[in-house]
Amino acid sequence: MTSLFITATGTNVGKTHTTLQLIEVLASKGLKVGVYKPIETGVTHTAPDATILLKACQKVNENFKDLNPLDITAYTFALPAAP
Predict the structure, then answer these.
(1) Catalytic positions, written as ranges
(2) Quick one: which of 2, 20, 66, 67 has the most CB atoms within 10 Å?
(3) Are 15 and 36 in contact (CB under 8 A)?
């Protein structure tokens, strides 16, 4: 199993976009792809990025079909911040 950890030093810099592209490309090459977003900031009600990532992963990995965004996000915070 190979893992990738996507990070950046700012918000709205393309982490989710890049991850979506990786999900699509890696799955198209026959790799089994999963996604986990350990922290999402800027969350007021639901985790929007986790929702987007989960939907993309559900299209390529049946093991994710019964999950919801909270299953792939450990922590959510209202303050929009980056590591």
Answers:
(1) 37
(2) 20
(3) no
Angle, nearest 10°, between helix axes 48-60 and 15-28?
A: 0
Tokens of 42: 């800027």
Closest CA to 12 of 35, 36, 40: 40
Cα separation, 82 vs 62, whole angstroms? 31
**Under 8 Å CB-to-CB from 73, ≥6 apart: which residues?**
36, 37, 38, 39, 40, 47, 50
Per-residue pLDDT of the chain (83 residues; tens, 9 = 90+): 789 999 888 888 999 999 999 999 999 999 999 999 999 999 998 999 999 999 999 999 999 999 999 999 999 999 988 76
Q: Note the pTM of the prediction, 2 decimals.
A: 0.89
Sign of the C-alpha dihedral computed for residues 69, 6, 1 and 20 taken in this order: positive
- Sequence spans of domains, the chain: 37-83
